[in-house]
Amino acid sequence: MFGSPMVTWMIVKKTERSSHRSNQLHSYMIEIVLVVYRVTVSDLLRNWALPKEDMKIVIESSFASVDIALQDFMQKRGKTAVGVVLIALYSILLLLMVAAYIRCYVTVQFNPGFVPWTAEREALEQERNQRASNGADVEIRSWAPRDDEPDSPGLESFYSKDIFVCELDGFPKWCSDCRNWKPDRAHHSTEYDYCVYKMDHVCPWMGGIISETSFNFFIQFCFYCACFCIIIISTNGYLTSLRLQEAKSIDARLIVALALGGLFGLFSITMTVTALRFAFQNITNVDMYKKNQIFRLAVRIPTDTPPNDRFNTITYPLERPGEGPRAPDAAHTSGMTQANGAASARASAMAARDQQARRTFAILQAEPGENPWHLGYLQNFKSVMGDSIIEWFLPIRHSPCSRHDSMVSDYKFGPLVEELKRRYGLEGSDPEKRAAAMTSN
Question: What protein family is recorded (predicted)?
Fold first, then answer.
């Protein structure tokens, strides 16, 4: 009779003690998680030398607000799972954002994508620096007219390709400030006085120019910064609404983090959308300002292509004024006697080789606004971000478009080139294919 209540009471007490110990253990675990989180993140913030102070202010304010949220969720409300997820998201996004930022910043500072100066331009800059050190006037005319010499330095790097961007007369574009031939998609920066490969914009946060060498890292940074700000805004907004419903005081750090998160979130989301749009369309910020520009392409055609009044042609290497076309019987064999048959044969062979080295280009003009580098949205994206998903999300490698090792062109051209050939009646005019067909026959 009396044993049953006593046993029940003992079981209840034992259960209460066990529950109390379990709650204590749970509280200790929460404290350990919070301490590890605080020590780890605060140590990173203290030791990571972020180049921009405003970047560090944003991260530190977000850390303070998240710390408040974790205490509220995990210790006061018992929402341990919410706290653990918040810690994981915050830490991962913080790590990825800072890694992308540092990768982009270092690239901008040490590999900005400048087109190297010519020796003449280097000498001009040295003279300018020398005059400045002597206190003299440094205003030396850097502008120079186009170098139309057949052996102009750097010209062969264009006509050794099969396609390049050209002017109306078939010459590559010329930069009068750099005194150099301007590579495809290069733009002269007045801020740095260099031509820049696939220049996008000058970024104050990165302290330099975003170009083909850093554009993919810039996209990753903007994306992770946007995600980071969304987490901060969502967490602080939710916690603030809970405290308002409970008529509790709101920590000022939550308001500051909300304001900063909203400001930088708006900026980073806008930049992410804009940069991704450029990547999918294979354009740059500079191209947007010239969206109706007209491209002229020098497209290699067989040297025996008959003349056509629909387009002009140009043949490289260029001939000097007064020189006729090199022919086997004129350029190398003049002055030779009939008795010197062996030498004449060698000269003829050399002349024939020179003839084979000649490359003829058709000058084809696109319509206003047509983008010759549009490869299709996915291929455009891959040309900037890389071929693998890992490269899309981690700041590992430079963009594939920054590798100019193709013998066809500096940048891969899209279907517009074949469309231009069709418009101008040049279907099947690929020199390599024609040579292969003649060999097989």
Answer: Belongs to the DHHC palmitoyltransferase family. PFA5 subfamily.
Return the bridge partners of 300, or none.
361
CA dist 400 and 414 (Å) reads: 15
Report the greatest alpha carbon distance in the chain.
140
Element (H, E) at 197: strand 194-197
For residue 65, the cross-strand partners are none
DSSP symbols for 230-285: HHHHHHHHHHHHHHHHTT----HHHHHHHHHHHHHHHHHHHHHHHHHHHHHHT--H
Task: Check the CA dihedral 55-56-59-65 and report its sign.
Answer: negative
If you average pLDDT over each of 5-19, 28-42, 384-398, which comes out highest? 384-398
Structure token pair of residue 139: 């205003």
Domain ranges of the chain: 3-112+215-282, 287-330+346-440
- Say how far apart CA 302 and CA 304 lie, in whole Å: 5
Q: How far apart are the first and last CA of the chain?
A: 113
Lookup result for tokens 């002269």: 188
pTM: 0.80
How far, in whole angstroms, is CA 200 from its chain's centroid?
8
Q: Cα–Cα distance between 396 and 222 in angstroms, integer?
A: 16
- Integer Cα distance of 219 and 66 in angstroms: 25
Chain-centre distance for alpha carbon 221: 12
- 410 DSSP 8-state letter: S
Tokens found for residue 420: 């231009």
Please determine, for residue 281, whether its predicted confidence score (pLDDT) is greater than 80.
yes
The rounded distance, in Å, linking the Cα atoms of 213 and 401 is 9
pLDDT digits (tens, 9 = 90+) for 258-274: 888 899 999 999 999 99
Which of the residue ranges 141-145, 216-220, 237-241 has the most confident prediction, judged by mean pLDDT?
216-220
